[in-house]
Design goal:
Layout (H helix, E strand, L loop, with lengths): L9 H29 L4 H71 L7 E11 L5 E11 L6 E13 L2 E6 L13 E4 L2 E9 L4 E12 L7 E6 L2 E2 L2
Parallel strand pairs: 1-9
Antiparallel strand pairs: 1-2, 2-6, 3-4, 3-5, 3-7, 7-8
Length: about 240
């Protein structure tokens, strides 16, 4: 049998190389872990930090949700306050209007019963002009009263006219010339305390009114007729 030949140093060379490779790998890993430890970094700490961040995010999202609910609640309260303010404002306006109406009524009746000037007989208590719906149309409201003396009714008729300028020329128009077509020009009155009237006037084209003349003609004995003039002042409709 032929003896097997061996090359000197072959087995030692392979084992040595394997040992060196393993040593290199182990050394590399140890160096990596050493580097992470030097940087205060490890897997456990990383997981813990991530969990802390998740917890913080959850907490912030909860705060955001709470703030949104608070904002919605404040918006609701603001709407309620706004509606409540509107109700109070409307009620206050209505109350002020009613107070004014009552004050006007008191002043009106005081003027009938006890006028400041102590006069007696017929009087124009109020005359008001407002614009109508159509151009050159106006509404006139006249209130006649009998002051101090109320033991009998007074009867008569109102004569109404306007002074002004027609195309630059001084002109006076009487009531029949100022009424809409088909409306009676008769203006009778009969009352013991007061009576109010509403009339619609239509101004002639080119006429600019300046004065309103009202003559209250009494047909009742011992009650004198009166005449008054007013400036033409027309308010909004």
């Amino acid at each position: 049998m032929k003896p097997r030949s061996h090359m000197p140093g072959t087995g030692l060379s392979f084992g040595f190389r394997a040992a060196i490779a393993i040593a290199v790998l182990v050394g590399g890993y140890l160096l990596f872990e050493f580097g992470r430890l030097q940087a205060d970094y490890n897997i456990v700490d990383t997981i813990a930090e991530k969990q802390d961040l998740y917890d913080e995010i959850d907490g912030l999202e909860g705060e955001i949700a709470g703030l949104k609910q608070e904002i919605a609640l404040l918006e609701t309260h603001r709407e309620i306050d706004r509606e409540a303010y509107k109700v109070v404002e409307t009620n206050l306006t209505d109350l002020q209007r009613k107070i004014q109406e009552q004050s006007d009524a008191i002043a009106f009746y005081r003027g009938i019963v006890s006028p400041k000037d102590g006069g007696r007989g017929l009087r124009v208590q109020d005359l008001k002009l407002t614009r109508g719906k159509d151009e050159r149309h106006f509404n006139v409201r006249l209130v006649l009263v009998q002051v101090m003396k109320h033991d009998r009714s007074v009867k008569g008729e109102v004569a109404f006219s306007l002074d002004g300028a027609l195309n630059g020329v001084a002109t006076t128009f009487k009531l029949p010339q100022l009424l809409p077509e088909g409306v009676s020009s008769s203006w009778p009155f009969a009352f013991r305390y007061f009576q109010d009237f509403d009339k619609e006037l239509v101004l002639p084209d080119g006429f600019l009114p300046e004065k309103i003349n009202v003559e209250v003609k009494s047909n009742t004995k011992s009650i004198a007729s009166i005449s008054e003039s007013f400036d033409w002042l027309a308010g909004p409709s």
